[in-house]
Amino acid sequence: MSLVEETRRDDVMTIALNRPDRLNSFTVELHAEFAAALARVKDARAVIITGNGRAFCAGQDLSERRVPAGAPMPDLGESLSLRYNPMLRAIAGLTMPTIAAVNGAAVGAGVGIALACDIAIAAESASFRLPGSKLGLIPDAGSTWTVSRTIGLARSRAMAMLGEAFTAAEAERVGLIWRSVPDATLLDQAHALALQVGALQVGEN
C-alpha cells in the first residue's frame, strides 16, 4: 500500500498522507514517498495536503526511534537535516498555492506541515499540539518560526512549553489557521478554495 495517495481533479493536486493506522506519523519510508510526491507537482493549479483517516499527521513515529538497551540513540539532528527540513522547504518552495486541509490531529511536525502551506483550514474536530516539551524536545519542523510568526510570541511560547492542544475553533480564533469548517465539508471546501486561489495565480476571473 502506498504511504501517500495522489489524486488530481480540475488541475488541483491532492496529496494525502496514508498511514491511517499510525495517525500518519512519519517514518523514513513516508518521508521518501511524500518527498517524491512533492517533487512530482509541476503544473497543478494548486495543491491540497491532507491526511487519510482520523489524523492529519501525528508527527514522528516514535516506534522508529526505539533502540535496544545499550545501543546508540538515533541522530535526531540528522533526521531534521536530511528529512524534516527539506520537506518543509519543498512545501514552501512550491510555485503554486498550497492548502492544508487538516482533517484531525496535527501534532508536532503535523503543525509544521500545516503552517508551511499558504492557507490552512481545519475540520471542526481537528486539533493542533506541539508536545515536544513532554518529551524533552523543542518544537521542530519549522514550528519555532512559523507558529510564533502566525500567533505571536506569547501564545507560541505557551503552546510549545505547555504542550496543550488547540481545538480547531481556538486555532481559528487566535489566527493559527484561516478557518474551521464542518468535518463533512473539509475536502470540498479545500478544493473550492484551491480553485479560487489557483485562478488568481493564472490570472483568471
TrEMBL record:
SUPFAM superfamilies: ClpP/crotonase. Pfam families: ECH_1. GO terms for molecular function: catalytic activity. CDD domains: crotonase-like. It comes from the Bacteria. One of its GO terms (biological process) is fatty acid beta-oxidation. Belongs to the enoyl-CoA hydratase/isomerase family. This is 2-(1,2-epoxy-1,2-dihydrophenyl)acetyl-CoA isomerase. It comes from Roseiterribacter gracilis.
